[in-house]
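A favour, since you know our structure tokens better than I do. It will help me judge whether the discrete encoding reads sensibly. The space below this message is yours for that.
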Amino acid sequence: MFLKVTKAGGYEYAKIVHNYRENGKIKQKVLLNLGRIDELKNDPSFINLVDKLQKIFLSSSEGTGSIKLFPEDVSEGIIKNWGYIVYRKLWEELEIGKFLKQYISQNSRIKFDIDKVAFLMTAQRLIQPVSKLQTYYRKNRYFGFEEDIDLNQLYGGLDILAQIKEDLELYLYHKNRDLFNMVVDVVFYDVTTFYFESIKQDDLRDFGFSKD
């Protein structure tokens, strides 16, 4: 296991990579995308992760390796959000990316990764709902989202999801039913409660209790 540095869009990105042999050839598997190096150097959560990995690695049966990072001193910086990894696991369990990519394969006009775009919007909505513009500005808070996503792709992703909304809902229903061995007799659909705040009254609005 070692740290690999790649360049994209004028930045350097760090990944934890594992070498393995397949059919007599040495191949690499990316275990974790860590993010931009210029941000990681000053990220205490990343330094803590490296410290934990170092201890695990040195206590392994090999016991001779080490994880080398940066020669510079590190200092306090912005803490990245790792909480989305839980949502990523659920996303993969439900194979939502597979469903989206099957749709993309039938539409050659779509040139971006709808799986990555849709998951970023979903993760942001679950963690802290904001506009798509703010989602774009905040994407660097999540490891693995620094590359290849621009604002127009977020807006384009909304159009795609709107087109396949019913198919996606049906797919997720069947996926959950099979995954959890559910026997469904009745489905309840919860709609958002709404009310008016006004000093005027008309045929639609009336003073009294909100419609719960």
